[in-house]
Structures are given as structure tokens and as C-alpha cells.
Automatic annotation (TrEMBL):
Lineage, broadest ranks: Bacteria, Bacillati, Bacillota, Bacillota incertae sedis, Caldicellulosiruptorales
Membrane topology reported for the UniProt record: Multi-pass membrane protein
Protein name: Major facilitator superfamily MFS_1
PANTHER family listed in its UniProt record: INTEGRAL MEMBRANE EFFLUX PROTEIN-RELATED (PTHR23513), STAPHYLOFERRIN A TRANSPORTER (PTHR23513:SF11)
Molecular function (Gene Ontology), one example: transmembrane transporter activity
The organism's place on the tree of life at top rank: Bacteria
Nucleus in keyword set: no
Transmembrane intervals: 21-43, 49-70, 82-102, 177-196, 224-249, 261-280, 287-306, 312-337, 349-367, 379-400
An example Gene Ontology CC term for this record: plasma membrane
Compartments, record wording: Cell membrane
Residue ranges of domain Major facilitator superfamily (MFS) profile in the record: 1-403
InterPro entries associated with the record: MFS_dom (IPR020846), MFS_trans_sf (IPR036259), TM_effector (IPR010290)
Length: 409
């Protein structure tokens, strides 16, 4: 049954997407509660920006190593089955984290190991879920579906940290991990109820390695994909280091406790929610490379402002802008890559996207963690912003040069 829904929520007219979306709406709140609790726990155990960056980087290392192979494997598999397995494993990891924290045996190395294990699973989970959406809604409603998915993700970014800070200060940090474990149940049920038909996968006799190379060549030869991926790589390495930058900024630069940290995260979530809504209302024809350039240069300027700011109230306002611009970039890049890819290569293209978007953050985490510790808690922001502007300008100049050459031919 397809409901008569239009406007910014038009993707919800698809029954299968509703099953998926409402399950995710609950699950991502738990995920954000766990993210904040795990970051704060790592900082409390070590009081070190560098050691915190190692925990956050550990979750992304598998993405960096396995993403390309994950995409090639996923292009051969039924997405629904993969999602059910990955979500069940993430539930299990969250429950283990609850147990070791509740029994007061948790140590720093536990967080590193669990982060690595989560990273392996999410390397398959993220591209599987993203490439599944086009099966649920079709190409016409895909940008709206991506935007709506981002809306609930970022609404959870507001609710999750706020609830987590309250839970930590009242009943204990371990209850955030239990809440996350329980929150996976609705999304598993929702995916199980989906009855969308996926394209039949034909065996082509090629090895996974051969299909990885084929996917890389496809991106390299498709100009819009190559340029978009270049910008995603810059963004993922130097801007999307929130897991390290924000707790360090809150505690060491602005002298705030977990409540202050939670409010900064929620401020960014408010901006992200606005950005996701704007993406959901944007037509697919308006999602292009020029839009990506505007978003990444703007967020870089806000980073520089954060690097010179000393006011907590001003920081809250600036984090609203960071959230708006960062999520607008990510959702637009995601939609552009999916719309510009053929069905045969979509999972591989999205795996390259996640490699550049999240797989490079171990490098970025260590970069910003080291700078924040060696120079100052503010330096991570303004140096990251300056580096991003320089690299983006290089891509922009190269893009305009190629366009000029193409016009003269």
C-alpha cells in the first residue's frame, strides 16, 4: 500500500521505507547515547585527548581497511539479510559494553577492542543500509529518503546526548549502553517486515579483488563521482572529527562538565536537523558539485571561528552552523553519488564514499587529537579549517580548469 504523502515527507508513502524509517528513528537515539557515553567514559578513564582519539579512530580503522572489499561483497549479496546480521551484532556489542561497565570491570583497552569490532560490522552495515534505500523508494524519491534518514539521525543527535547526559548524572553511564542495546530491536523488526524485491545477483566468475579494481576504475572514469569523492575525502579527514574535537573543546577549552558537552552536541544536532530537512526538500536536479563546494568552504570558515572563540554561548551558536553545513554536505554528497552511479556499481561507490567519509577519520582523529594536546584545545579547529580551505581550493581550481578545457574542445 502506498499512502498519498507529498512534500518533505514524500518517501514515507512507500510502505517498506516506513518500516525501515520508523525502526531507525528509535535505534539512532540509542546509538547517539552510546557515542556520547563512550567518548566521556574514555576521557574520564584517561583524561587524555590523544587516548580518546585512539578509541574513536579504532572504530574507523576497519572502515579504512575493509571498505573497498565490503562494497564488492555487498554488490553480490541481498541487502536485507546483511542488515539483519549487522544490526544484531551491534545489539550484542552494546550489551557487552553495558555488562562490563555495570560490573565495574571496564578498562581503557576494552573500549578500543569493542570500537574495533563495531568498526568491522559498520563497514558492511552502512553501505548496505544506504544502498538498500533506492530499492525501497526508487530514484525519484531517493534524495528525499536520504534527507529523511538524515533528519532522524540528527534529531537523535539532539535528543541522544541530552538524554545521555541526564542518564549519566542520575543513574550511571552504563545505562546508556543498555538503552542502545534495546533500541536495536525495533529496527531489526522493521527490516524483517520489509518485502521489497531485490535484483537477482548473477555470478560473474570475478574475484572480489577484481571487482574492487573495477569499482575504483569506474569512479576514476566518471568525473562527477571522482570530484565528489575528492571533496568527501577532504571533509572526512579534516572536518568530521567531532568525537575528538567536541569533548576536548568542552572539557579542556571551555571547562564544562558532561552537561555542557551534551549541550554542545545537541547544538550541532539542531543545525544538522535543519540541514537534513533542507536536503529532504531539495529536488535532485539541484544536487550538484557546486553545492558541495559551497558547503565545505563554509564549514571550514566556521571551524576557524571556533578556533579563536572563548565563549561557551558563541560556541553553541557556531556548532549549530557546523551541524547544518556538515550534514548538508554529507547528505547531498550521498545522494549525488547514488544518483550518478549505475545499479551494478552503487554499493561499491557507496563503500568508497564511506571509506573517504569515515575511513579516513582515524588519520583525522590522530591529527586533531595530537594538535589539541600539543598546541591547545582550540588549535584542532582552526588548523583543520585552514587545511580544508587550501585542499578544497585546489580541487576547485582543477575542476574549473577541466571545465574550461572541455568547453574549448
Amino acid at each position: 500500500m502506498q499512502l498519498a504523502i507529498s512534500g518533505p515527507f514524500r518517501a514515507l508513502r512507500h510502505k517498506n521505507y516506513r518500516y525501515y524509517w520508523f525502526g531507525q528513528a528509535i535505534s539512532v537515539i540509542g546509538s547517539w547515547m552510546q557515542n556520547m557515553a563512550m567518548q566521556w567514559l574514555a576521557l574520564e578513564l584517561t583524561n587524555s585527548a590523544l587516548l580518546l582519539s585512539i578509541v574513536t579512530a579504532s572504530e574507523q580503522v576497519p572502515v579504512m581497511i575493509l571498505s573497498l572489499f565490503a562494497g564488492a561483497i555487498l554488490d553480490r549479496k541481498q541487502k536485507k539479510r546483511v542488515i539483519l546480521i549487522t544490526q544484531s551484532l551491534l545489539l550484542f556489542f552494546a550489551f557487552v559494553l553495558f555488562l562490563i561497565t555495570y560490573t565495574d570491570v571496564v578498562q581503557y583497552w576494552h573500549l578500543v577492542v569493542l570500537a574495533l569490532m563495531r568498526g568491522v560490522v559498520t563497514t558492511f552495515d552502512n553501505p548496505a543500509r544506504q544502498s538498500y534505500m533506492i530499492i525501497l523508494v526508487g530514484k525519484e524519491d531517493l534524495p528525499n529518503a536520504v534527507g529523511l534518514n538524515s533528519m532522524i539521525f540528527n534529531l537523535a543527535r539532539i535528543i541522544g546526548p541530552a538524554v545521555a547526559s541526564l542518564v549519566i548524572s542520575t543513574v550511571g553511564i552504563e545505562m546508556c549502553f543498555l538503552a542502545n542495546a534495546i533500541s536495536f530491536v525495533p529496527v531489526i523488526i522493521g527490516v524483517f517486515l520489509i518485502d521489497a524485491k531485490e535484483p537477482q545477483k548473477e555470478e560473474n566468475g570475478k574475484s572480489v579483488f577484481a571487482e574492487v579494481i573495477e569499482g575504483l576504475k569506474y569512479v576514476y572514469k566518471t568525473k562527477v563521482l571522482l570530484r565528489a569523492i575528492s571533496l568527501v575525502l577532504i571533509m572526512g579527514t579534516f572536518i568530521l572529527n567531532f568525537n575528538v574535537l567536541i569533548p576536548v573543546y568542552a572539557k579542556l577549552a571551555l571547562g564544562r562538565n558532561e552537561t555542557g558537552f551534551g549541550l554542545l552536541m545537541s547544538s550541532m544536532g539542531i543545525g544538522s536537523l535543519i540541514g537534513a530537512f533542507l536536503t529532504a526538500t531539495r529536488r535532485k536536479e539541484k544536487i550538484n558539485l557546486n553545492l558541495l563546494f559551497k558547503f565545505i568552504l563554509s564549514v571550514s570558515l566556521v571551524y576557524i571561528l571556533l578556533g579563536i572563540n572563548k565563549s561557551y554561548k558563541v560556541a553553541c551558536v557556531l556548532f549549530v552552523l557546523v551541524g547544518l553545513l556538515a550534514i548538508s554536505f554529507n547528505t547531498s554528497a550521498n545522494a549525488l553519488l547514488q544518483l550518478s552511479s549505475s545499479d551494478e556499481f552503487r554499493a561499491r561507490v557507496l563503500s568508497i564514499y564511506f571509506l573517504c567519509n569515515a575511513g579516513t577519520t582515524p588519520i583525522g582523529n590522530l591529527f586533531t587529537g595530537t594538535i589539541s594536546q600539543k598546541i591547545s584545545p582550540w588549535a584542532g579547529f582552526y588548523i583543520s579549517g585552514l587545511v580544508t580551505i587550501v585542499l578544497t581550493t585546489m580541487v576547485l581550481i582543477t575542476t574549473f580548469k577541466r571545465r574550461s578545457l572541455e568547453k574549448t574542445k
